[in-house]
Every structure is written in C-alpha cells, then in structure tokens.
Write a structure and sequence with these properties.
single chain, mainly alpha, elongated, 110 residues, 3 helices
Length: 110
Amino acid sequence: MRLKLVIISSLVAAIVGAGSAIAIILSVFSSLKPVGSPGLLVLSAYLLPAVMTVLAAVFVYRHTARRRKLQAALTALMSLLLVIAFFVAASVITARTEPVDPQPLRRNAT
C-alpha cells in the first residue's frame, strides 16, 4: 500500500477544499447583514471540499496498482475527516469571546 500517496493526497485535498471554503465563508458571510439570495457562492462553499475529496480519491485510484478500491476509500475517508477537523478548528479560532449586544431601536420622534 502506498501510504505516503494516500496521506499526502488526503492532506492536499483537505487543505485546498476546506481552505477555499473557509476563505469564502469568512470573506463573504462574515458581515452582519444577511445575504439576500446566496446562489452560486454558497453552493461552491459546500461543493469545494466534496469535489476535492473525489478528485483525491480518483487520483489515488489511478496511481496505484494493487488494492485500488481500498486506497481510494481510505483517501476519501481521511480527507473528509481532515475537512471536518479544519472546519472545527476554523470555527474555534474565529469564534467571538464576548457576545455582541444588540443595538437599541431608535424611534423617530414626530
């Protein structure tokens, strides 16, 4: 079994997939105003880690001679676990320590 290939491709897929999704989420959705119609940007944030995982599994499947299915499945499982770990780490790192107090409503005096 080519363990180096499995580990490196899983790590690269998780870094690229989760990193790009985290960058999209932090850059676009970090403002306090709600997004009206999310559209393609939200879909890409969900699909990037999955696409990178599938590409890594296909890459490992095509570049190994024996036990192809096992190595491809192991690559997919490892990269999905790493993606989840990156998402959890990003949420812990970017979490606020103090809650944001809501601003009082201003009423127009007539």
